[in-house]
């Protein structure tokens, strides 16, 4: 009964989305207040109905209702409760329902908190958001229905993919989808502005919090996925340039560019066309990511490898929204005349360079991700584009971004003097060079990756300190002025420092990892770097739905035991699938990472050990970037009705 109720609610939400798309759009064009007012209750009703449908599906997973085909394929009665719940979105159909739930959530939030928007703009934004809902409701109902029943319900299910039975993967998709789908609001604002033919400072202020929220969620989701890959897959890396990893990274880069571009629109009413284009492309790359994950055309360790027919549906959705928005952009671009002019050296120019670096780096990732598919389709050649290409092509843009970020953040608007702006940074630059030089002198090899990363990390973090010091002025109550800075300024500082910490962590891990593989005998110690490890025992341990071969090791340094490590090889009988569970001794300076393999004929066990310097700096930096975004999101000007006091007359559509 609950399942049927959920199915019925899903169909009703689809019908409400159609109403939300058509009626407010006509009302905004005709200036009919009653028709425009339909958008707000429709958005709330659409979210409520979708939440009922999603709740019904989750209930089916919780109670192990194997009469539902989706539950039978992705759950098991012996599975822990956390993974029964996460099984709701650990598959194609359920994850698409989560996708639509978040689309309707953002639409409802725009209806509830968009009181400061002009009525016509609000109606059009909600209508475009409703249209996105219509497309994906149709996709779910007609191609990916999660509520299909089985004629003869089995006694038990086929279990969830064991790789997904992990806390990191339980929370990674919801955060990632909040980011992916959150960019739909920026898209809706962009298309609504194109329809009205008007983009101004108030529009920039309205669109920024939605983009910022999406970027924060994307940051958290990407960091959780990277952390999961690091400790769960047993290979010791944090990023492999996998197509699905790139699918989330590309919108993140464009969302970061959009955030900085919207600042220029808000402060100077410049870069209007570019900002609109970025808003379209950011959501477009979210749709491209959806295609990559669900089409089955590109292989990945964590893709939903479904039949290509569903990929065709997503391509049609992408072509409709991206093609329509870009066509509208080409027609309206002339109406987006920029008011603010600025010199070659100015904060606006620095933000333009920032945007170009982020956009080009996104294009590099896109080409590397899609080229194997293009080569196979048009040249009948099977190619593999791996980390060497991405590292060589992508890294220079990030190095350039790190170099200009501190100085660009303090340049005055409109016109600046470069030498004058750089003067406070001269000592910081020397210190950052010294940090990089010290890293180069202390390393055993002659790689430049580590020293350059240390230099950039120090340059960005100390640059943030200089920027904050400049904001407090000279003399008097400098500490008081520092504490009274707007939260948006604090957020920018924390996020930029987080980028520096992440860059240093990535460089340190990449350049200075120590790797050791051997057949270890029980009771015989061996050395890796400055550490001594001993395999004390190997036992078979039973979990709730798996059997584990667990090693018991001690980790010592300078004759003192510092940790006990228990790496595992698990086997899930229902799914007939093994997984590797690495044992990690975490530390801010380094991780000691141990993986156990198979038993050898000699009686020993294959043990792989990594010493990974500065790994946790990556997660700390990611957390700081997300925290910076959250601090900016709580700034007062984002909590009040954006631009309500400056609204002025109703906009008139451009002819």
UniProtKB/TrEMBL annotation:
Keywords: Cell inner membrane, Cell membrane, Cytochrome c-type biogenesis, Lyase, Membrane, Transmembrane, Transmembrane helix. The chain crosses the membrane at residues 6-26, 47-72, 96-113, 125-144, 175-195, 207-229, 249-265, 274-292, 312-331, 352-374, 394-413, 425-442, 448-469, 490-512, 617-634. InterPro entries: CcmF_C, Cyt_c_assembly, Cyt_c_biogenesis, Cyt_c_biogenesis_CcmF. The keyword RNA-binding does not apply. Its main location: membrane. Residues 89-296 form the Cytochrome c assembly protein domain. One of its GO terms (molecular function) is lyase activity. It is found in: Cell inner membrane. It is a multi-pass membrane protein. Residues 315-636 form the Cytochrome c-type biogenesis protein CcmF C-terminal domain. PANTHER family: CYTOCHROME C ASSEMBLY PROTEIN-RELATED, CYTOCHROME C-TYPE BIOGENESIS PROTEIN CCMF. Required for the biogenesis of c-type cytochromes. Possible subunit of a heme lyase. Belongs to the CcmF/CycK/Ccl1/NrfE/CcsA family. NCBIfam families: nrfE, PRK10369.1. This is Heme lyase CcmF/NrfE family subunit. It comes from Sulfitobacter sediminis.
């Amino acid at each position: 009964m609950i399942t049927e109720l959920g199915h019925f609610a899903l169909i009703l939400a689809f019908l409400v989305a159609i109403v939300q798309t058509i009626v407010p759009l006509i009302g905004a064009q005709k200036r009919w207040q009653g028709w425009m007012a339909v958008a707000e209750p429709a958005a709330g009703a659409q979210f409520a109905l979708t939440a009922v449908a999603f709740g019904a599906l989750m209930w089916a997973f919780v109670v192990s209702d194997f009469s539902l085909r989706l539950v039978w394929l992705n759950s098991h009665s012996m599975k822990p409760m956390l993974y029964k719940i996460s099984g709701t979105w650990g598959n194609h159909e359920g994850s698409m329902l989560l996708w639509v739930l978040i689309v309707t959530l953002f639409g409802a939030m725009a209806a509830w908190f968009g009181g400061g928007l002009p009525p016509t703009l609000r109606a059009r934004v909600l209508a475009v958001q409703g249209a996105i809902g219509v497309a994906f409701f149709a996709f779910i109902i007609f191609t990916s229905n999660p509520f299909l029943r089985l004629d003869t319900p089995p006694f038990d299910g086929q279990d969830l993919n064991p790789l997904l039975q992990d806390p990191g993967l339980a929370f990674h998709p919801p955060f990632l989808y909040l980011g992916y789908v959150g960019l739909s609001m920026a898209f809706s604002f962009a298309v609504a502005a194109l329809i009205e033919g008007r983009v101004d400072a108030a529009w920039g202020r309205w669109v920024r919090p939605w983009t910022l929220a999406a970027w924060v969620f994307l940051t958290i989701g990407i960091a959780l996925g990277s952390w999961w890959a690091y400790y769960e897959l047993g290979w010791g890396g944090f990023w492999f340039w996998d197509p699905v990893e790139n699918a989330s990274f590309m919108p993140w880069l464009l969302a970061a560019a959009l955030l900085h571009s919207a600042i220029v629109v808000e402060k100077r009413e410049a870069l209007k066309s570019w900002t609109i284009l970025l808003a379209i492309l950011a959501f477009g790359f979210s749709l491209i990511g959806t295609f990559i994950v669900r089409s089955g055309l590109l292989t990945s360790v964590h893709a939903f490898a479904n039949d290509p027919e569903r990929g065709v549906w997503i391509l049609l959705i992408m072509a409709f929204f991206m093609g329509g928005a870009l066509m509208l952009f080409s027609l309206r671009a002339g109406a987006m005349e920029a008011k603010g002019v600025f010199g070659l050296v100015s904060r606006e120019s620095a933000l333009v360079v920032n945007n170009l670096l982020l956009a080009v780096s996104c294009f590099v990732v896109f080409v590397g991700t899609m080229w194997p598919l293009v080569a196979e389709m048009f040249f009948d050649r099977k190619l593999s584009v791996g980390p060497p290409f991405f590292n060589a092509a992508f890294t220079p843009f990030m190095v350039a971004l790190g170099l200009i970020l501190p100085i660009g953040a303090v340049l005055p608007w409109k016109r600046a003097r470069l030498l004058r702006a750089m003067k406070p940074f001269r000592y910081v630059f020397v210190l950052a060079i010294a940090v990089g030089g010290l890293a180069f002198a202390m390393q055993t090899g002659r790689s430049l990756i580590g020293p350059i990363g240390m230099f950039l990390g120090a340059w960005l973090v100390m640059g943030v300190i200089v920027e904050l010091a400049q904001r407090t002025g000279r003399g008097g109550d400098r500490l008081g002025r520092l504490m009274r800075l707007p939260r948006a300024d604090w957020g920018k500082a924390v996020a930029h420092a987080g980028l520096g910490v992440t860059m240093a962590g990535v460089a340190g891990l990449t350049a200075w990892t120590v790797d050791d593989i051997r057949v270890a005998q029980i009771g015989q110690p061996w050395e890796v770097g400055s550490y001594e490890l001993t395999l004390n025992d190997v036992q078979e341990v039973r979990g709730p739905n798996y059997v584990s071969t667990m090693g018991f090791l001690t980790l010592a340094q300078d004759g003192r035991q510092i940790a006990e490590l228990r790496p595992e090889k698990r086997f899930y009988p229902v799914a007939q699938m093994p997984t590797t569970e690495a044992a990690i001794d975490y530390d801010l300076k380094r991780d000691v990472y141990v993986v156990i393999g198979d038993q050898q004929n000699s009686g020993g066990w294959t043990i792989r050990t990594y010493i990974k310097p500065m790994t946790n700096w990556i997660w700390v930096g990611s957390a700081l970037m997300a925290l910076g975004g959250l601090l900016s999101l709580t700034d007062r000007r984002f909590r009040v009705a954006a631009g309500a006091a400056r609204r002025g007359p109703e906009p008139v559509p451009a002819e």
